[in-house]
Design brief:
3 helices, eight-stranded parallel beta sheet, mainly beta, 27 strands
Length: 355
């Protein structure tokens, strides 16, 4: 038994579990956090450490480059909508752009709000994050040039009033995969543009040599021309997705394309549902993310590959409202205005956690 315990301790030390440190990051210099910028935190942390990015109303950084393994955890998003009675800070932990370079293999980015991410390393996980248009207007919100990427339970919201003049007649993508064995699941992806010019937008682009698993997502497009909202899907297992709006399935090659639902003509073979009436699919109201839950009589209910629901709330690892991190989150704190020696300090704390 003694030798077995020593063996376990050696494993933990070698894996970095025992030595890993947890750091607070807050951009407010008056707060007693360990770091006040993400660049400082990345430089000061050791490989395997965890950075807790606190919401402070300020953006933490632009084009932050990560070249060591880290766990970066924010506070989620849409909290003011989903928890309107909360007495806790409803702001999100915000980044501009993050780049994962070699050396960052195994890094996890969770519950952050950011403009875009570039993955140039293997085994990177991005989960429960909110991607939205930023001042730098990165055309590709997520560029994956590393193997074994896990992209799950995120909310992508790209809204541009017009295209960029320099990109006339070029092809642009919201999500792009260039390497092997990517998992893209339980995400929401939206693309809107009012004047498309001569550009061609891909909601999802899979390069010739890439391989991907694309399951239980919702893809929505609102663009002037269907030619401008394309899917270029190659070498992928594509199942249990809901795809609607102004769509054009431009390149579908060497895929398993089964049990998907669309308002477009995708055929009815292999459990696919075409020409769906989208107004019957989702609940009639809700917050920015809860409105994508399925209606009681939705045609997307129970028609997945194994009888599961389609869309981002279906499957074994469904989307989490507000992208709350996988740790207890306090959403209500009640503190009495006055206390006495007789009554003491009585607090009421409400918290919840998610997978």
């Amino acid at each position: 038994m003694k030798n077995f315990l020593v063996f376990i301790i050696v494993i933990l030390i070698n894996s970095g579990i025992i030595n890993a440190t947890k750091w607070r990051v807050n951009s407010n210099p008056t707060v007693g956090a360990h770091f006040h910028t993400l660049k400082e935190a990345i430089a000061g942390a050791a490989a395997g450490d965890t950075l807790y990015m606190e919401a402070s109303g300020a953006v933490y950084g632009d084009a932050d480059t990560i070249s060591k393994k880290l766990i970066i955890i924010g506070t989620g998003f849409f909290k003011g909508e989903n928890y309107p009675t909360s007495t806790i800070n409803s702001q999100a932990s915000q980044l501009n752009k993050v780049v994962f370079e070699p050396g960052s293999e195994g890094t996890i980015l969770m519950s952050m709000q950011l403009y875009s991410a570039v993955i140039n390393a293997d085994n990177i996980t991005i989960t429960k994050c909110y991607f939205y248009d930023g001042v730098d207007d990165d055309k590709t919100m997520l560029y994956v040039n590393g193997n074994n990427a896990i992209i799950t339970k995120n909310y992508f919201n790209q809204i541009n009033a017009q295209d960029w003049a320099a990109d006339v007649s070029t092809e642009l993508s919201v999500i792009a995969f260039y390497k092997s064995n990517a998992l893209f699941s339980n995400n929401y992806i939206f693309k809107y543009i009012s004047t498309q010019g001569n550009n061609y937008w891909n909601l999802l682009f899979c390069a010739t040599n890439s391989t991907s698993t694309i399951v239980n997502n919702i893809f929505e497009s609102s663009i002037g021309s269907a030619l401008c909202a394309k899917f270029v899907i190659r070498n992928s297992y594509c199942a249990n997705n809901i795809m609607y709006g102004s769509l054009n399935f431009n390149v579908i090659s060497n895929n398993t394309f089964i049990n998907n639902l669309s308002n477009a003509a995708i055929g009815t073979a292999n459990g696919n549902i075409q020409n769906a009436v989208i107004s019957t699919v989702f609940v009639s109201s809700g917050t920015s993310d809860s409105k994508f839950k399925l209606a009681v009589a939705s045609p997307a209910k129970g028609v997945g590959v194994n009888g599961e629901d389609l869309g981002m709330f279906g499957g074994t690892d469904p989307y989490v409202i507000s992208g709350l991190p996988t740790l207890p989150t306090i959403y209500q704190l009640t503190v009495p205005a006055q206390v006495s020696n007789q009554t003491g300090l009585k607090l009421t704390i409400k918290a919840k956690t998610s997978n």
